[in-house]
Amino acid sequence: MSHILNRLSYFKNRVSDYSDGHGVVTKEDRTWEDAYRKRWQHDKIVRSTHGANCTGSCSWKIYVKGGIVTWETQQTDYPRTRPDLPNHEPRGCSRGASYSWYLYSGNRLKHPLIRSRLLKAWREARAIREPVAAWGSIVEDPTKRASYVKLRGHGGFVRADWAEVNEIIAAANAYTAKKHGPDRIIGFSPIPAMSMVSYAAGSRYLSLLGGTCMSFYDWYCDLPPASPMTWGEQTDVPESADWYNSGFIMLWGSNVPQTRTPDAHFFTEARYKGAKAVVISPDYSEASKFGDVWLSPKQGTDAALAMAFGHVILKEFYLDRQVDYFQEYARQYTDMPMLVRLIKKDGRLQPDRLLRASDFDGSLDEDNNPEWKTIAFDKNAGRVVCPRGSIGFRWGEQGKWNLEEKSANGDDIDLSISLIDNRDDAVDVAFPYFGNRQHDHFHGTDHPDVLERRVPVKRLQLKEGETFVATVFDLMCANYGLDRGLGGEWAAKSFDEDIPYTPAWQEKITGVARDQVIAVARGFADNAEKTRGKSMVIVGAGLNHWYHMDMNYRGIINMLVMCGCVGQSGGGWSHYVGQEKLRPQTGWQPLAFGLDWSRPPRQMNSTSFFYAHTDQWRYETLGLDEILSPVAPEGKWSGSLIDFNVRAERMGWLPSAPQLQRNPLEIAKDAAAAGMEAKDYVARELKSGALKMSCDDPDDPANWPRNMFVWRSNLLGSSGKGHEYFLKHLLGASHGVQGKDLGQTGGQKPEEVAWREEAPEGKLDLLVTIDFRMSTTCVYSDIALPTATWYEKNDLNTSDMHPFIHP
């Protein structure tokens, strides 16, 4: 009633007008506005950042009132890095500006939670046993173990106190280390750069325990394998400010305005400076509208587009005319002049490997690492030489690491990138072609799976006899299908011929008009010629998450190398899919992996690990014949895909954990009893067959991972590739696996990995997740532990997108 009377008194509240009646002065109570004003009041401002794997690593002002975070804004005190670059600030996005609401979300995990059936079993066992024995009595009893394992993902959590839950975890780890081995205790946590102290806390504990730290970059499929394949390193890229120095930028599979929001201004500012922008994306993305040109290839066909770009660049900037800068760059900084052996297989010549000093009698007088020193032809001396800078010069010698145009003995050299004017012959060389395969998502072409193309060669006398050799450049030109007047069926004289890898050829596959391809390739190379390499490709996960993405990337890398862009400010490739750059890595590693106590730590690549222990290999339908190159060298190419993973583990090409079928603690005791060092004892036992590697039989209970810790990650929600198989075989929970395994379908079973008719369900004894929210992984865990959010703890954050370290 009082509300109605207040409304009726409205007309009495009016005092006067102003602004010709547009404004009204009243005597109403306005104290309600204080609630709004107080919303923006604060007691203090704290500097913080967000530990998200977004490459941002932005610095934020966090406004706190009464101990409660109320809101946040971007920091505006970034120092200038160079006077000729725009400011880095403001750095941040709308997602970061709303994070404070997350702290007080209903999803917030506030207390330790444990699966009620596990807690009941623990208390019953603990009443009559010591902690380690109590845990053993639970996991050794199939009924008790299944009582909580089968209910993962079904709720049933109860609150526990820290003392009790810590005792359970400690007892589980002690039991597992003693019974099965410390390498059966594993931990998964992603990119350390996005909160390096938090990562190190868990990895140090695991390492000191002898446990296994899992990889992350490869598991997310964020690691571009073409980078280590080509350069031997992870992803060495410029910070985003270097975009501003470029004269021609391709955005290829990277949606900068959306996924690189804090750094997108450098891209737009470069356009104000005159940079050309080409966006390559199948969809009309947020980035597309920023491009001068938008190319939309069919999804998954980017490698074909990159090869067509390279075809144009090689023809117009290397063959039709020779660009001085490109020639200089190719001679000094690339392997284009290096010689490659040609071998005969099935009556056809094909490329083998790089020629080495050790292939010659006397090793060309190279006594130090001759098997690691590559060979090229020197026009000055008219003979083969060993140029400085190859990997063989990097140990055992001083002052010869740099890529200089000098021979091993210090003479000036002028390397030939081509032998066409100095050839002994021109021969047909076989190259594999995969574009003729029938595919569900794009059109193949009607070409043979082996293309023979003419290559200029020289005859050289080696230890093993006379052989043909060709330069990398000449092989590249042949592979790209360029006509050089040497004849042959698969050499294109024009861009309009339907020969792999011409612009006309790619048009059928990608759907991009050939004229656009020619124009973009010319523009990219022309800018690189005029600016000495300031053409850039910004690459991202849009390409990287495709099968055989290394082909996409290597096509792009080839373009950049041809144009002398790699290593140049404003040029090269800028690959960003996460905060992979841990800037203080040298000092951080001893802390993170306990190297101050023991080394080496146990580390395992997650891709191999989860493929084996979620038993996805049991359902593998991809046959070797579908992906084997038609010119593959002689070797054992039979079996299932897991056989090749195991061979790689056995030969040391991949890490392997769990490592051996027996507890490594027991192996160390046996080695000591035999009076041998552990490494010698293990080698002897493996050779005799008395000791087996765990990877040979991943379904044997002796080889199962037992305890798993997840922190800083939603492993089973956002990154569990093959989620259903995780639930069925690793966790033993309710699952959605519908397919049948190879035993049921009669498919190709492994040759070297043991096949068990009954696949295990529920390999893990214990799954513990540490998180500040009730994530999907927490829901499936046995124990979920709360932790501080990014605003509530001390940590450090870095990114390769900028040069700052943020607390």
Structure description:
This protein is an alpha/beta fold and 807 residues long. It is built from 27 helices and 25 strands. Helix 4 (116-126) runs antiparallel to helix 6.
Summarize the structure.
With 807 residues, the protein is an alpha/beta fold. It contains 27 helices and 25 strands.
Outline the secondary-structure elements:
Blueprint: H1 2-8, E1 14-18, E2 23-26, H2 33-39, E3 44-49, E4 59-65, E5 68-74, H3 94-97, E6 113-115, H4 116-126, H5 131-139, H6 142-149, E7 157-159, H7 162-179, E8 185-188, H8 196-209, E9 212-214, H9 226-231, E10 248-252, H10 256-259, H11 264-272, E11 276-280, E12 293-295, H12 302-319, H13 324-333, E13 339-345, E14 348-354, E15 376-378, E16 383-385, E17 425-432, E18 450-462, E19 465-471, H14 472-479, H15 503-510, H16 514-531, E20 535-539, H17 541-544, H18 549-562, E21 572-575, H19 585-592, E22 602-604, H20 606-613, H21 624-627, H22 641-650, H23 664-673, H24 678-688, E23 707-711, H25 723-731, H26 742-745, E24 766-771, H27 776-779, E25 783-786
Parallel strand pairs: 8-9, 8-23, 9-22, 10-11, 10-20, 11-12, 20-21, 23-24, 24-25
Antiparallel strand pairs: 1-2, 3-4, 4-5, 6-7, 6-25, 13-14, 13-19, 15-16, 17-18, 18-19
